[in-house]
Amino acid sequence: MANFSFITMRYIWFLVTFFFLFSACRKEEPPVTPSQTDDYVLRVPTGFPQPGIPADNALTRTRVTLGRRLFYDPALSKDSTRSCGSCHFPQLAFSDSTAVSFGIEHRPGTRNAASLANVAYQKQLLREGGVPTLEMQILVPIQEHNEFDFNIVLVAARLKRMPEYVALAQTAYEREPDAFVITRAIAAFERTLLSGDSPYDQYAFQGNPFALSASAKRGLGLFESDRLNCSKCHDGFLFTNQEYTNNGLYEIYPDSGRIRLTGLESDRGVLKIPSLRNVALTAPYMHDGSLPTLETVVDHYQTGGKAHPNKSPLLKPFKLTPGERADLLAFLRSLTDKKFISNPEFRN
Ligand code: HEC
Ligand code: HEC
Quick one: 199-341 is in which CATH superfamily? Predict the structure, then answer.
C-alpha cells in the first residue's frame, strides 16, 4: 500500500485537507448525543489505559455496527471485489498471511499488512508514521491504486443508493453515508479491536501465576535482559515504545521507510517499531514480510543485523543455547489472545 509516490502522497494530503475543511464546516451544528441505550461499552483489558476517542466520534453501538459492515464490504473498492477484511483477517489478528497483500485485479502491494489489534493506541499510522488518525487512514486504501483504486466521494455516492446504509448512517450520525460517516464509522469499529487476554496478560495483569509456562517465563526474562535488549524497543503494554528505528534488516533498503515522510537521511531504513501482541499469528514478519517465521526473526537478531549507518546501537550480536531459543519463542507465542481472534463481534 505504501509505495505511493510523492505525487500520490500529495494527492492524499490534498484529500485529507479537503476532509478537514469539510468536517470543520460542520462544527456549527450541535454534536450528536447518542441515546443512552446506544452506548457502546468498551471492554478495556486489565492493565491497559483508556484509549483516546475523538470528540466527534464517541463510540455507540450503531456506529460500531455500521463500521463493521463497511469494513467487510467490497462496495468500498472500485470493482466491488475487495474489502478491508480482504487484507486484515480477524483470525490473524487482522493481519494477512502473505508477505504483501493484493488489491483489486490482484494488484500486489509493497508492504506486509499490519495487525489492527489495539490500533486505537497507535499514535501515528503506517510504517513511516505519516498518518495521525484512524479516520484519515481510511482514505489511503480507498485511494491507493493497488488497494481499492477508488475515491471516497464515489464510495459515498454508491452507499447513498443502498437503503440499509442510509438508515444506519442516519441512526449513527444523523446524516447520509457521506465521507464523514464512512471514515468515522470504520474508525469507531477499529477502536473496539482491543486485545489483552493472552496467557502473558493473565500472568502479568490478571494475577494468574500459572498462565505462563516456566519456559515462557524464562523467555520473558531473556526478552527483558540487557543481553538481548528486545524490551528496549518492544516496551510497554503493547510491546512497542511507538518509536521509529532501523533494525538492520538490509544494507540497502528497497523500501526507504521514514525518509519518505521526513526527507532526512537519518530516517532511511527507519520504520515503526511494531507491537508484538499476537505476533505468532501475524507471520510473515517485518515491513516487507521478508522473514517467514519467528525462528527466522530470532536468527536475524542473533546476528546483530546488517550493517547500515542508521542501525540502532541497541542491536548487537548474541548467542542463545537451544534451550534459551525455545524459551524466547515460547514467550513470543504466549502473546496470542485466542478470545480476541474468535470474538464474533469482530467478524463479518
Ligand atoms: C490490499 C490490502 C489492504 C487493504 C484492502 C486494506 N489494507 Fe490496511 N494495511 C495494508 C497494509 C499493507 C498496511 C501496512 C502499510 C504501511 O505500513 O505502510 C496496512 C495498514 C493499515 C493500518 C495502519 C496500522 C498501523 O498500525 O499503522 C490501518 C489502520 C489499516 N491498514 C486499516 C485499513 C482499513 C480500515 C481498510 C479498509 C478501508 C484497509 N486497511 C484496507 C493492507 C490493506
Ligand atoms: C532497536 C530497536 C529494536 C530492538 C532492540 C528489537 N527490535 Fe524487534 N523490531 C524493531 C523494528 C523497527 C521492527 C520492524 C522492522 C520492519 O518493519 O522491517 C521490529 C520487528 C520485530 C518483529 C516482527 C514483528 C512483525 O509483526 O513484523 C519481531 C517478532 C521482533 N521485532 C522481535 C524482537 C525481539 C525478539 C527482539 C530481541 C531479540 C527485538 N525485536 C529487538 C525494533 C527493534
Answer: Cytochrome c-like domain (1.10.760.10)
